[in-house]
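Translate structure to sequence.
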């Protein structure tokens, strides 16, 4: 007798509950492997679609009261095209003050909001660009700042205000994390 016929006869001799469990197991494997691959594969990894804000502030490790310096606020979206960003940045107005904001290097072609408040210690930014959007690393704003007094301070993204929106027709927020730039303003000895 052929091995295939022997297998089929042995299968049908099994208890119907056992046959059902075999089919459930087979279907679980059949459906589970593609589902697992869609979660774990880099081609389908949702984490790869995330985007980040970050600060770039060279030369800020030896600041003292009275110094001026610049901080760049960037957006990085390497995998997915974006078309709008928004955020509120916070800083301690007793330690730092904004002297100017520059947006000439940004991917944004229009700004709904681009302002700062040295009393409250806030920078408001909301901008975008039309379809097809932007993919890459862009300097959203360059902040010129002045140190008012010594101390430990930080510039950070206000919780709940960070938006990096995908150019997907749904405005999917791709933000991955909220950055903080820590600064130690030291007194000259």
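Result:
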């Amino acid at each position: 007798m052929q091995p295939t016929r022997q297998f089929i006869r042995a299968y049908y001799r099994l208890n119907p509950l056992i046959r059902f469990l075999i089919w459930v197991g087979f279907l679980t494997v059949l459906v589970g492997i593609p589902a697992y691959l869609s979660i774990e594969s880099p081609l389908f990894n949702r984490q790869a679609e995330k985007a980040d804000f970050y600060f770039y502030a060279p030369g800020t490790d030896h600041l003292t009261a009275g110094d001026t310096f610049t901080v760049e606020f960037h957006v990085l979206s390497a995998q997915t095209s974006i078309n709008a960003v928004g955020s509120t940045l916070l800083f301690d107005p007793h330690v730092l003050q904004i002297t100017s904001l520059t947006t000439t290097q940004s991917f944004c072609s229009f700004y709904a909001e681009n302002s700062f408040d040295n009393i409250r210690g806030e920078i408001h930014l909301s901008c975008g660009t039309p379809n097809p959007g932007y993919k890459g690393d862009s300097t959203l704003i360059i902040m010129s700042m002045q140190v008012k007094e010594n101390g430990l301070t930080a510039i950070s993204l206000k919780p709940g205000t960070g938006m990096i929106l995908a150019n997907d027709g749904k405005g999917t927020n791709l933000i991955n994390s909220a950055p903080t730039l820590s600064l130690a303003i030291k007194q000259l000895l």
